[in-house]
């Protein structure tokens, strides 16, 4: 456990979270690619994806569902010398998986842009600070916008829209989620800037990540949204039909 002190005290590292069902994962190769890519970005080091699979396989049950989180960090990371040669290690944990689909959620827009959005960093201070503020204001979570009111993402999820004709993913600096990518591959879509003012004109809004699948958004700020539009079920079906790979 002493090795984990560095992770706790510096918050420098990266991770991915996978929903494992009966020993299988949708988008497994995308999760592994993310870990390899982010390890190179943060540590300048190679990561063996097969070793990651083996470690995850040891803790994941072969029956039922859980969420497996794979965290990569360097136990010897020195805040004074972050450019020193790294020796990143893998830390695998599990938590129960929620039953899907989750109930619709209401979100509050918050002005925030994450550091290095392309990397799934363990540094969640900003995201959780804004999630807490949104919940204190009576919402379920926070939706991030920049100084120009361009919508990007939630703290731990991507957001998508349906304008009546097309599925739209916001064009912004975001973490490209695995579930979002699987849905992009499975369903026609467009990518374009979405402003907060555009939300009221959308017929449906939804959130995605590996743990929640596709979750309807029933409101943004004081804008009430339809949470049972047929496109939500269409996207859920498309996601559930994605073949899952054995861990």
Automatic annotation (TrEMBL):
Pfam families: Aminotran_4 (PF01063). Transmembrane segments: none annotated. Signal peptide: none annotated. InterPro entries: Aminotrans_IV, Aminotransferase-like, BCAT-like_C, BCAT-like_N, Class-IV_PLP-Dep_Aminotrnsfr. Keywords: Aminotransferase, Transferase. One of its GO terms (molecular function) is transaminase activity. Belongs to the class-IV pyridoxal-phosphate-dependent aminotransferase family. This is Aminotransferase class IV family protein. It comes from Streptomyces thermocarboxydovorans.
């Amino acid at each position: 456990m002493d090795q984990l002190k560095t992770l706790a005290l510096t918050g420098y590292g990266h991770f991915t979270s996978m929903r494992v069902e009966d020993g299988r994962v949708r988008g497994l190769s995308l999760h592994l690619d993310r870990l390899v890519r982010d390890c190179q970005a943060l540590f300048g080091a190679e990561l063996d994806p097969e070793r990651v699979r083996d470690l995850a396989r040891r803790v994941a049950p072969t029956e039922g569902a859980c969420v497996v989180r794979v965290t990569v960090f360097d136990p010897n990371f020195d805040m004074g010398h972050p450019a020193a040669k790294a020796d990143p290690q893998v830390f695998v944990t599990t938590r129960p998986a929620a039953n899907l689909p989750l109930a619709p959620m209401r979100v509050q827009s918050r002005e925030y842009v994450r550091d290095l959005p392309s990397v799934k960093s363990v540094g969640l201070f900003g995201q959780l600070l804004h999630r807490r503020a949104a919940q204190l204001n009576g919402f379920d979570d926070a939706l991030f916008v920049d100084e120009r009111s361009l919508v990007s993402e939630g703290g731990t999820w991507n957001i998508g829209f349906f304008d009546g004709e097309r599925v739209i993913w916001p064009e912004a600096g975001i973490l490209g989620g695995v579930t979002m990518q699987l849905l992009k591959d499975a369903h026609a879509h467009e990518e374009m800037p979405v402003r907060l003012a555009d939300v009221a004109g959308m017929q449906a809004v939804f959130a995605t990540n590996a743990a929640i699948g596709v979750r309807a958004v029933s409101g943004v700020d004081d804008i009430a949204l339809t949470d049972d539009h047929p496109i939500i079920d269409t996207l859920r079906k498309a996601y559930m039909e994605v073949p899952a790979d054995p861990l």
